[in-house]
Amino acid sequence: MTFSADAYFAEVMGEFEASPRASAIHFSRRSILKLSGAAGAGLILAFTLGPVTEAAAAAMSAKDFAPNAFLRVSPDGSILIYAHRPEIGQGIKTAVPLIVAEEMDAAWADVKVEQAPINTALYGRQSAGGSTSIPTSWDQLRQAGAAARSMLITAAAKKWGVPVSECTTADSAVAHAASKRQLRYGELALAAAALPVPDVKTLTLKTRAQYRLLGNRFTGVDNLKVVTGQPLFGIDQAMPGMLYAVYEKCPAVGGKVISANLDHIKTLPGVKDAFILEGNGVTSDVMPGVAIVADSTWNAFKAKAALQVNWDESKASKDSWTKLQAEAKKIAKQAGAENITKSGDVDAALKGAAKTLEAFYSYPFVPHATLEPQNTTAWFKGDSIELWAPTQTPERAITQVAKLLNLPENRVTLNQTRAGGGFGRRLVNDPCCEAAVIAQRVNAPVKLTWTREDDMRHDFYRPGGFHQFTAGLDAAGKLVGWKVHFITFSSDGKTPVAGGNIPAAEFPLPLVAHGELTQSMLPLMTPCGAWRAPRSNAIAFATQSFIHELAVAAGRDHLEFLLEILGEPRHIPPATSAALNTGRAAAVIKLAAEKAGWGKPLPQGHGLGLAFYFSHAGHFAEVAEVSVDAQKRVTIHNVVMAGDIGPIINMSGAENQCQGGIIDGLSTMMNLQVGIENGRVIEGNFTEYPILRINKAPPKIEVHFIQSDNTPTGVGEPALPPVAPAIANAIFAASGIRVRSLPLRNEGLTV
Amino acid sequence: MFKVNGTEHSLDGIDPATPLLWVLRDTLGLVGAKYGCGIAQCGACTVQLNGVPIRACSTPISAIDGQSITTIEGLAAPDGKLHALQQAWIDYDVAQCGYCQAGQLMSAAALLKDKPAPTDADIDQAMAGHICRCGTYTRIRQAIYAAAKGGVA
C-alpha cells in the first residue's frame, strides 16, 4: 500500500527535466498564427508549440477572439500581452511579457498584462516548475514579438510606399527616418492584422546588444494591486452565494473515516452541511476525510475544531523520524544496497591515499509552508465545473478534476490565480481535487481553505536524507577517491521518494577518476515531493561542506581546491545547455570569491565560507561572512553570490529571486524541520516552524551575474542550494565548529 | 458599530467572538488582510486599530466596538494617492509572491508615523512580527528607508 505521490512527481518532474532548453528547439518546429478576430480588434497573434492541432485551430477561428492569444495590439495603442504561466512569486508574469515586448519593440508603458486562460493547445505547457518557464518559452515568446514587429513594420512601409528595410521600430512606433514619418503601433494595428503572418524562418531575432528592455529593472506587473490589497490570490476569490469549506483528513496518511460526529457538527452556527468523503485514496487527488460547509470561513474553522473523527489507521502510516534516523546511522558505514555509479577503483585509491576522511551528514523533512495556505474555489454546475486555483500545474488540475468528476475535460474551466508562494507545493492539485469533489455536493460556489495546521501536516515534504562520505587525498593534497553511501527513502521499495533521489552525475563524481555512489532506501509512507531546487537543496549542503572538510584536511585553500576539482573548462556529458560546464562554474566561483574579498584580513572572530552548486541549468557560487559568539550565536554579516543563467530578463526580479532564495536557504538550514511520529507530522504552525524574520536576515546580500549569450535559464531555484554549505563552511572558518546535521538549532547554534 | 477605512459598519448579527479578519474578508469583502496562521504569528492579517498595528486573525470583533480600523485598502489617500510606503514598495519591487506585503505595509506605516527616521533596530522591532516566506526582507528594509527619506506624514 502506498500513499505517495511519487508516480505523479515522476511525471511532473520528468516533464520539466525533459523540457528542451530553448537552444535545442528549431524554428521550423513552431507555428505562429494570426487570429481572425472580430473587425476592429487589431493585430492578434497566437503561437503554439509544434504543428497546429485541430483543437488549436478550432480555438483560434472562433468569432470570440478574446482572450485566446498571446498578444494583442489595439487601435487605441494599448498592447495586451498574456502571461501563460502561473505567477507564484517567481516573477514570470512580468518576465514573459518583457520578452514579447522586447522583440516587438513595444514601449513597456503601453503594455498591459493579463493572465492567459489555460489552453495548452494554444500555449503549450502552462505549468511552472523546475525553473523551466523562461528557457522553455524563450523562443516561443521572442518569435511572437518578432512576428508582430514584422507585420507592423510591413504595414507602415506599405502605407508609405517605402521599402521595409528603410523603416525602424522603437517605443511602439515605426519610423521612416528619410521622410521623418512615424506611425504608432495602434495606428497600424488594423492594417497589420490584414497582412499574412510571416514564416518564422524569415524572422530576425534581436541580439543581446540590441536589447532595450531585457536586463533592466522592472517592477512586477501586479505590484500596484499587491500594495493596495486588491483581490489577486486564490484565497481572495469571492462570488455571490459562495459557501466556505474545510476538509479534515487523517493525521497519519492512509487513515480512513470510520465515523464522525456529523450530527453535532451540523447543529453548529453557520454550518450548512457536513459529510464524509471516501476519496480515491490517492494523496495527489482526494484522500478520505470529512468536509464541512459553512456560511463563513470562521464558522467552518470553528466547526472543524469541534469535529471528532474515528479513524481506521490499520493501513495508515506509522512512520517515525526518530527510528528512521537511528536506522540510517546503523547502516551508514556499510556499502549501500544499490550501486548508482562507479568509476575507476575507489577502494584501491582510498587504500593508497595519504589521508582519508569520513563524515556523516544528515538533514530533516521540511514542508513548503507557502504563506497562502492551500485553497481552491469551485462551482459545480451539473454538467460542468469552474475552478479558481493558485496552482503550479493548471493543465493537470483540469485533467484530474475531469477524471474525478467523470466530466469531459472541456467541461472543466480553471481560472489561474496568483499564488501566495509555490516552492513546489502547488505542483500537486490535492486542494483543487478536494474542492471539486466537495463542490459536487454543494449547490453553490464553495471555497475550500486549509488551516495552517492542515497545510503543514498534509504536505509532500522535502525528504530528509543521509550521506556517509569517505574520500582520499594524496600526498600533495589532491582528491583521489570519492565514495558516498546515500541513504534515502522509498514508498514502494523500488525507487526513491520524490525529491529524494541522487543522480549518478552528482557533483563531483563525474570529475574524479575513482568514485562510487551507492544507495540504500528505508521504507516510508509519508508523502514526499518537490521542494524548491528538489534534492539539490539538501545534497549541496552535504557535498559542498565535505569538500571544504577535505580542503581543510589537505591544508589547502578551499577556493583553489574546488577549482582544481573542476579542472579544465568543459561540458560534463551529456553536453547540453542544461549540463554542468566547468568553465562557467569556475567563473562564478572566482567572481563570488573576488567580490567577497576571499583571502582578505577579517575582523576577529569572522570567517568566510564558500560553496558552489549547479542546478536547474544555473551555475551559482556563494560566499558567506559570519561570526559565532561564545553562546554559539551565529551572525551572518554578508552573503555574496555570483550566478550564471545566461542573459537576465528582469534584473530586479532576478536579484529578488536570488536574495529570497538565499534567505530561504538560510532560514531552512538554521531552524526548520518537521518531526514525524506514529505517521503524524508533529509541527503545525509557525510557533513550531520558525521561519526567519527580518531581524535575523543578513543586512547585505550581494548579487552578481555573469551575463552571456547562453540561453537564459530559470532563477527561481538555483541560488538556494549553495547557501547552506557556504554558511556552514563559514561557521567552521569562524569558530572551528563543523556542522554536519541540519537544522543548526539542533546543534545548539542559533541565528 | 465600528469604522473601517472611515466607513461605519454594524456589528449586528455577527458573533462577537469572530476574529476581525474574517469579518473584513468574508463579510465586508476587504481581502487585503490575509490569513496565514490564525494565531498572530505571521503578521499577514495586520491592520491598524486607531493607528496601532494589530493582528486581525486574533482580535475578536467585540474588541473593536466603537473603534476605527484602517486596512491596506485604506492606506492610500482618499484621492487615491499612494502612501509613500506603497510607492516605495512599487519602486523597489519589494514583493515576490506578495501575500505578506499588505500586513508588512500596515506595520511599516505605523512605524513611520511613530518614528519618521527609523534605525535598523527600529525596523527590526516593528517588522519582526511578520513572516515573508519569499524572503524579501532586504527590500522591505530598503523601501522603508526610501519612504522615510521621502518624508512621510
CATH H level of the largest domain in chain B: which superfamily?
Answer: Beta-grasp domain
Compute the number of structural domains of chain B.
2
- How far the N terminus sits from the C terminus of chain B, by CA atoms, comes to 28 Å
Number of strands of chain B: 5
Could you list the spans of chain A in which at least 5 consecutive residues all have pLDDT below 50?
22-30, 48-68
Q: Approximately how much beta-strand content do the residues of chain B carry?
A: 5-15%
Task: Sketch the major β-sheet of chain A.
Answer: 7 strands, mixed
- What portion of residues of chain A belong to β-strands? 15-25%
- Percent helix among the residues of chain B? 25-40%
Mean pLDDT of chain B: 96
- Identify low-pLDDT runs of chain B: none
Kindly describe this structure.
The complex is a heterodimer of chains A (751) and B (153). Chain A is an alpha+beta fold and 751 residues long. Chain A folds into three domains: 5-226, Aldehyde Oxidoreductase, domain 4 (2-Layer Sandwich); 239-315 and 374-449, Aldehyde oxidase/xanthine dehydrogenase, molybdopterin binding domain (Aldehyde Oxidoreductase, domain 4, 2-Layer Sandwich), CATH 3.30.365.10; 332-366 and 461-747, Aldehyde Oxidoreductase, domain 4, CATH 3.30.365. Chain A contains 19 helices and 28 strands. In chain A, the strands form seven sheets. A seven-stranded mixed sheet of chain A has the order 11-12-9-19-16-17-18, with helices on both faces. A five-stranded mixed sheet of chain A has the order 1-2-3-4-5. The two termini of chain A are 42 Å apart. Chain B folds into two domains: 2-74, Beta-grasp domain (Ubiquitin-like (UB roll)), CATH 3.10.20; 84-149, [2Fe-2S]-binding domain (DNA polymerase, domain 1). In chain B, 34% of the residues lie in helices and 11% in strands. Chain B has five helices and five strands; from the N terminus they run E-E-H-E-E-E-H-H-H-H. In chain B, a hairpin with a 2-residue loop joins strand 3 and strand 4. In chain B, helix 2 packs across helix 5 (137-150) and helix 3 (101-114) packs across helix 4. Chain B starts with a strand and ends with a helix. The model of chain B has no long low-confidence stretch (mean pLDDT 96). Chains A and B meet through helix 7, helix 9 and helix 18 of A and helix 1, helix 2, helix 3, helix 4 and helix 5 of B.
